[in-house]
Design brief:
Layout lengths: L7 H29 L2 E2 L11 E2 L3 H17 L13 H22 L3 H18 L5 E4 L5 E4 L2 H22 L5 H23 L7 H21 L8 H19 L13 H4 L2 H8 L1 H16 L12 H8 L3 H21 L5 H20 L13 H6 L2
Antiparallel strand pairs: 1-2, 3-4
Helix pairs in contact: 1-2, 1-7, 2-3, 2-7, 2-8, 3-4, 3-8, 4-5, 5-8, 5-11, 6-7, 6-8, 6-10, 6-13, 7-8, 10-13, 13-14
GO cellular component, one term: plasma membrane
Keywords: Cell membrane, Magnesium, Membrane, Metal-binding, Transferase, Transmembrane, Transmembrane helix
Subcellular location: Cell membrane
Length: 388
């Protein structure tokens, strides 16, 4: 290990195993899906033109389970598992439930209410088993700590989890986007967890979010080579909902469980609580989700009705190519997520400067298409506009 109680080598191994297993199993899953004819047909709102295998979430879940099983065998990481804490068991149980729901939806297209019920089941299962909000530290209210009872904690955790599941699911509409955003957001939360582990000398509460994020980053990194444009396989709802659940698990695990009393009032780690970092990391998909609901209800439609009005569709209409659209969104998520994290690890003036520069670069990249006049081989501007 390196650092004050920070098992960097072991977490790195967990990440690499998750990456390798996911990468290899994805190829196997794709081969099976092609042989059995299980491919996603092209819908009007899609940006791909060829039927493509889906259900890539199976490979991602396999990588997750293998990575967690490895972590449980590493002495430096055993503090993150039962009997010390039940959280990793809860994560696997919730992940299994959401992947099953996703597989059924990918293959047979569940109705909106049935899918929502499945999402709440997985979220409640994970909450009841140990991934639950307990307290909130409010740094801007004189160090106030809000203590939640079991009912409040489970309810809030479940709602938060379902929100993130749908946020990632909604943004998964273009090759490589969800996997990349999951990898970036997971990396940001992982950096925060490592900072806490370092500052608190290996606090038990910081182990589960660090392990979850290492595995999350790994499965996204392993799947991305198969999914980046032009995608050879889609993760499907089984994969996108898994990413959302793992982001929620990591954030709930970190939030409210860090001993902020160890930090002074002026310490920026205390001022940037875990939940703020998490909100920053998933700000883009959440905003896209909220705007989608507002947009659809304003038109008198169901908030669950799919359309082509997401952020990535709008960037395509601005003139960005398929790949450039994904890279621009990567820039925005990285700027916001790592900007928030930077306030907890470097002096405020440097963090503010880094965040400002990153946001300006993302803004410029958004407004100035790098391949003007092109939107990729999938759609024309007229067809994209006609869908709205």
């Amino acid at each position: 290990m390196t650092g004050a109680g920070v098992p960097l080598r072991e977490l790195g191994l967990v990440l690499l195993v998750a990456t390798a297993i996911t990468y290899l199993v994805t190829g196997v899953v794709r081969s099976v899906l092609v042989r059995t004819g299980r491919v996603a047909e092209v819908r009007q709102r899609d940006v791909h033109t060829q039927p493509t295998p889906s259900v890539g979430g199976v490979a991602m879940f396999t990588g997750l389970v293998c990575a967690v099983l490895l972590a449980a065998q590493l002495p430096a990481l055993t503090r993150g598992f039962a009997p010390v804490t039940p959280e990793m068991t809860a994560v696997i149980a919730g992940a299994f439930a959401i992947v099953v729901v996703g597989i059924v939806d990918d293959l047979y297209e569940l109705g909106a209410l049935a899918k929502l019920a499945g999402q709440f089941f997985a979220a409640l299962l994970m909450a009841f088993m140990g991934i639950v909000f307990t307290v909130f530290y409010v740094p801007f209210a004189g160090g106030t700590t809000l203590i939640l009872d079991q009912v409040q904690g489970v309810a809030l955790s479940a709602i938060f989890t379902v929100l993130l599941i749908n946020a990632v699911n909604f943004v998964d509409g273009i090759d490589g986007l969800a996997a990349g955003l999951g990898m970036i957001a997971g990396s940001a939360i992982l950096v925060f967890a490592l900072t806490v582990l370092h500052d608190q000398g290996g606090a038990v509460s910081a182990y589960p979010p660090a392990i979850i994020c290492a595995a999350l980053v790994g499965i996204c990194a392993g799947f991305l080579p198969h999914n980046f444009e032009p995608a050879r396989i889609f993760m499907g709802d089984s994969g996108s909902m898994l990413i959302g659940l793992l982001l929620s698990a990591a954030s709930v695990s970190a939030s409210g469980k860090i001993n902020m009393s160890l930090y002074g009032a002026a310490d920026l780690v205390a001022l940037v609580s875990p939940i703020i970092v998490v909100i920053a990391a998933i700000a883009l998909p959440v905003l896209d989700l909220v705007w989608a609901v507002v947009r659809r209800t304003a038109r008198g439609e169901s908030p669950f009705k799919a359309d082509a009005g997401h952020i990535h569709h709008r960037l395509l209409r601005l003139g960005h190519t398929h790949r450039r659209t994904v890279l621009v969104l990567y820039m925005w998520v990285s700027a916001v997520a790592f900007g928030a994290v930077s306030f907890s690890i470097v002096p405020v003036r440097y963090a503010a400067a880094f965040t400002a520069i990153a946001l300006v670069l993302a803004f410029v990249a958004t407004l100035v298409p790098w391949a003007k006049g092109k939107i990729g081989p999938q759609r024309s501007v007229d067809k994209q506009t006609a869908l709205l």
